[in-house]
Task: structure prediction
Amino acid sequence: MNEKDIGVDYSVLHQIDSPANRLIRDSIWGKENDIGQQSFITPRYLDALIERCGINESTYLYDVGTGVGGPAIYIANQTGCSVAGVDVAEVGIEMAGKLAKASNLRSKTEFHLADAMNAPFEDDTFDVAISLNVMNVFEDKVGLFKEVLRVLKPGGIWAFLSGTFDMPDDPEINRKMARGYLIPQYYDSLPSYRRMLKEAGFEIDEIIEYVSDFRVQNKKWGDAYKKHYDVIVEEQGKENTDYHIEYFDTYLSLIDEGKAANHLLISRKP
Ligand SMILES: C[S@@+](CC[C@H](N)C(=O)[O-])C[C@H]1O[C@@H](n2cnc3c(N)ncnc32)[C@H](O)[C@@H]1O
Result:
């Protein structure tokens, strides 16, 4: 399977106000917890992240794979920090600009259409870099970590929340998980993340497991696709909809077998 066959973009999901996506989002988050996230995170995750990374109004924050910028805007709103988000999806970056404007945070936020493997920033720019449920899309994670290291100031923090996997050696399970959210996935285990962070030059400060809430969010995604099946099929196609149901069901089984979790890894540039 190559990237062309499976469509490497989030343009369907990033249209957050389309009729089907509205139904999906209302099922998962309700109005209260919908902050424009395209992931498993909740405001609760972000509040903990803000505290652990010490993000405040003097922080210059980098969000790797910002999606439609919802989490970045939430953090800017809560803390008064300035934030730069980067994403390869044009629809996401456009939507991020609209959401920032609607939140009156245009002056505190900037969103760049760019590949995080080649970030459009000078060396030693940011105090903190974050990434929320994006890591699996990077095949060369050491390369990505080195690029994050480059744009962080010395002493800067790199905190990412990611699925961590102990993937079974089963081609069928691998097939079902291969293109989460329509994008190729390159899964890694927690020990592998530790090793790669050190190899890139980071010092690891803290690792926190967020599995129970993560399971709830994961199940809600799958349930939303099943509950609104007909409307989603009509808007986003049967193949795509069936694939997502299979993906979330498989993901949930892996969580229940103890083979998939969600970890926040916090490290520091020496
Ligand atoms: C699961 S979404 C998470 C979005 C956001 N972090 C959130 O929590 O709402 C993953 C995002 O990674 C982006 N992405 C994929 N490859 C990327 C790359 N090479 N550089 C930057 N962003 C990338 C996708 O376009 C998508 O918006």
